[in-house]
Amino acid sequence: MSIDILIEKIKEKKNPTVAGLDPRWEYVPGYIQEAAIAKYGKTNKAVGAALLEFNKGLIDGLCDVVPAVKPQSAYYEMYGLSGLNALAETISYAREKGMYVILDGKRNDIGKTAEAYAGAYLAKVNAGEIEVANELESEGLTVNGYLGTDGIKPFVEACRDFGKIIFVLVKTSNPSSGELQDLLVDGEMICQKMASMVNRWGEGLEGKYGYTPVGAVVGATYPKQLSELRSLMPKSYILVPGYGAQGGGAKDVAGAFDKNGLGAIVNSSRGIMCAYQKGDYKPEDFAKAAYDEAIRMRDDIMQYI
Amino acid sequence: MSIDILIEKIKEKKNPTVAGLDPRWEYVPGYIQEAAIAKYGKTNKAVGAALLEFNKGLIDGLCDVVPAVKPQSAYYEMYGLSGLNALAETISYAREKGMYVILDGKRNDIGKTAEAYAGAYLAKVNAGEIEVANELESEGLTVNGYLGTDGIKPFVEACRDFGKIIFVLVKTSNPSSGELQDLLVDGEMICQKMASMVNRWGEGLEGKYGYTPVGAVVGATYPKQLSELRSLMPKSYILVPGYGAQGGGAKDVAGAFDKNGLGAIVNSSRGIMCAYQKGDYKPEDFAKAAYDEAIRMRDDIMQYI
Question: Which of A82, A264, A292, B51 would suit a FRET pair with B21, their CA atoms being 20 to 30 Å apart?
């Protein structure tokens, strides 16, 4: 199971973190923006080229110390087809460099259509005799479980058949997450109901560390719920957003881990990507700054595990 | 408000339906597949070209009688960048032909990222001085409200500022939708809670027919809930999937409409796209078959309104 590969990469690097690649144009160092505009003019193509150049530098800087990257699909989609092309190239480059790629797309739909999404990101797709080369294939994908079991099953089947993983939104990191996710049903919150569904969806797919390929997203911004959900989903890896820029600290994420220091992977996006804008870095040193911040984050989190 | 434009298109065509464009390769007539392979070989490019050719024919066949199309993003994403290119060209072609385009993407994320998704599909995006040409811009987008208000607000703001619309998943058409959506909170189902949120998100944005740009998705496969949700969301247009191939009939969707025959738009995808596979059509007549089925569906539904 591919969750084992992620765990082994985490163990090997002694680093349970993932670098979010959410490359807004404003994050890209000016000299990269300028070079792209000089080459392609003020066009979408320049934007895509700049994002990709930035991402490649970040991946180069991070690949020896961070096990995984998490590109956020929205930040590529917003720049149109050139953005999506940059996403495809980013995924491919990160995989080449041995990084585990979790695409943050929060996809969801009814069964037939969920199958198409699974095909897009996790499985093989054929069009008649044509084997589709899917440039957006990743190791993992975030998904939204609002539609229930038949909307998730195709993703789980892709996990089983192609050694992939998913992370189901359980308790998200944003301020309004409780509006729906904390509603009480027979004394149990909706996010806890979702946690039970996550358990059920993963049943029988345990890998050698006891974890299934059906993980969960739980935000660092709700540390108490994070600990509770950890114990409710003993076999699910937890992807933890909200560390750093969103306000979650190392202590807040500690509850996501099991007693062996496994069970969670903590994301930082802006903190790592824009590290060069803090301290004494030149823009040209953005990859070094990202590396330094990744090490700082790793050490920060490891002290509590 | 753009919801008024949709309503006027529906009134003009006397047809409250939308044609889903979910072009699986298997749906594409063989002669189009073969021509694409002859031109591009057994490649992604051939797939993209065939999907686009098929869609253009369907749009040509439908644009005089059907007000809107709803491409399902998953069926393009699954064919990689060539699929996404076909999606962009499909959207652009449908808009040229005067059709209202609702992209079915069920996007969702926390505030900052929801803003990026809104930019991708509904708003304008700038990258510094570059005005991004967003090839995937549509008139409407389906979204998932599991994250609560701050995950939806950026979409609502895009509706307000750029004359767009959204449809929030309330009660989906799939068999498992009740697992989460029918759970009872203080005697009220989650889908009803979501309906209240839909009302709140649309507040103050009523157009001239009394409808807001914040609509809802409610499946034809749950006709009783459809009627109830219609009265719970008096100002929201309802996008109704599940007619035809999924089992919903014209009687089942009747409850989605208000007393003036407005308030809902019923989707059919496979039924229209694959109409040529039924009856006495030649594959070359797929557009005519789609037209005939669209008329049949319109008349079928109109008799109950």
Answer: A82
Contact between chains at A179 and B148 (C-beta distance less than 8 A): yes
Q: Which domain holds residue B264?
A: 2-302
Residues A206-257: tens digit of each pLDDT = 999 999 999 999 999 999 999 999 999 999 999 999 898 778 889 999 999 9
| Mean pLDDT, chain A, integer | 97
In chain B, which stretches have pLDDT less than 70?
Answer: 1
Chain B CB within 8 Å of residue A102 CB: no
Tell me, what's the pLDDT at A188? Answer: 97
- Chain B residue with the nearest C-alpha to that of A124: B78
Amino acid at B12: E
Show Cβ contacts of residue A14 under 8 Å, excluding neighbours closer than 6 positions.
A298, A302
Give, in order, the Cα–Cα distances in Å from B148 to each of A245, B110, B143, B153: 20, 9, 11, 9
Sign of the Cα pseudo-torsion (A72, A75, A78, A80, in order): negative
pTM of the entire structure? 0.98
B111 touches chain A (CB under 8 A): yes
Catalytic residues of A: 106
Percent of residues, chain A, with pLDDT higher than 90: 96
Smallest CA-to-CA distance from A121 within A100, A109, A105 is with A105
Scanning A249-288 for CB atoms below 8 A from B yields: none
Q: Specify the pLDDT at position B246.
A: 76
Contact of A33 with chain B, judged by CB distance below 8 Å, is answered with: yes
pLDDT at residue number B1: 63
Residue A253's CATH number: 3.20.20.70
Rounded to a whole number of angstroms, the distance from the CA of B260 to the nearest CA of chain A is 31
Instruction: Provide CB contacts within 8 A for A39, sequence distance 6+.
Output: A46, A49
Q: How many domains does chain A have?
A: 1
Q: Which residues of B touch A179 (CB under 8 A)?
A: 148-149, 197
pLDDT at A1: 62
Task: Provide the 3-class DSSP secondary structure of residue B142.
Answer: strand
